[in-house]
Amino acid sequence: MTVTIYDVAREAGVSMATVSRVVNNNPNVKPQTRKKVYEAIERLGYRPNAVARGLASKKTTTVGVVIPDISNSNFAEVARGIEDIANMYHYNIILCNADKRKDKEIRVINTLLEKQVDGLLFMGGAVTEEHIQAFKTANVPVVLCATTDEDNKIPSVDINHEEAAYDAVKTLLAQGHTDIAMISGTLQDPSNGYARYQGYKRALEEAGIPESEDFVRVGNYRYESGVEAMNHFLSLDKHPTAVFSATDEMAIGAIHAIQDKGLRVPEDISVISVDNSRMASMVRPQLSAVAQPMYDIGAVSMRLLTKLMKKEPVEQAKVVLPHEVVSRQSVGAPKA
């Protein structure tokens, strides 16, 4: 049978109110009494009923986190940052994988809200009108994590994706490359896709280099689409001397496609990406990449959410964290 607070009170020889104060870390309990209650809890194997406590306090101390792809190491790093700060502020996390599908994202958001979470962290791609509607009816604080909404109305923590892409392409331009291709994410994705494409485009325009339709391919963030895009570039009469990829995984696919054709990176074709996941230093040659502070994005997002949940003052609801170019072996000067 389930052990109740009444059983603990009887075992410890105290009132149920005293047990409640001990369980809720109320300081107004004598050390000796607190010790007796804890010993009774341990003997009986009592576990406080979080649902009942939530109903009484109207707080569940639980945060819902929507993650687009739990197998992606970048999102795992964000989740680690979230969890560390959540633990610090005594919040529990319900983590839900949405498979980068809008219908599943909306369903997961509603499921988490039904579970009476105190706040919601959303990691995903495009924040659509359907997402906005779901957030509006939430009645709990929402923070966007590693993404933003088009109108910047919802609190968010991210990097400037356009600037990150711009800096990556500028790195290639500085080496003397002019034939630069891009493997983009979907252009319906405001950050990994469209914003990074805009950064690529702006860097070329500033350098006076006309954009070529043949030099831009849209991938799905996965390794296979990087291979497919690179094979397209290599099939052209004049292939690019450098490739900028919107993600590490597609960049690694591009590197392997280049090597499969008997060409070398960076001697024949240079490759750079945005992300700087652990895979970037595992591939050979090691991948140059613009580093996103993924752990910090998660940690800052969770801290912002705690402030909103506690109704503390928030100085900045839209936080943009810095990025940096990490140079490794995959970028070099083009052949003379």
Question: Explain this structure to me?
Answer:
The structure is a single chain. This protein folds into 3 domains: 5-48, lambda repressor-like DNA-binding domains (434 Repressor (Amino-terminal Domain)), CATH 1.10.260; 60-158 and 294-323, Response regulator (Rossmann fold, 3-Layer(aba) Sandwich); 161-291, Response regulator (Rossmann fold), CATH 3.40.50.2300. Helix content is 45%, strand content 15%. Helix 9 links the parallel strand 6 (180-184) and strand 7. It contains 13 helices and 12 strands. With 336 residues, it is an alpha/beta fold. It has helices at 5-12, 16-23, 31-44, 50-57, 73-88, 102-114, 129-136, 161-174, 190-206, 223-235, 248-260, 279-282, 294-309; strands at residues 62-67, 92-97, 119-122, 142-145, 156-158, 180-184, 216-218, 242-245, 270-275, 288-291, 318-320, 324-326. It has a 6-stranded parallel beta sheet with strand order 2-1-3-4-5-11, sandwiched between helices. A 6-stranded mixed beta sheet has the order 7-6-8-9-10-12, sandwiched between helices.
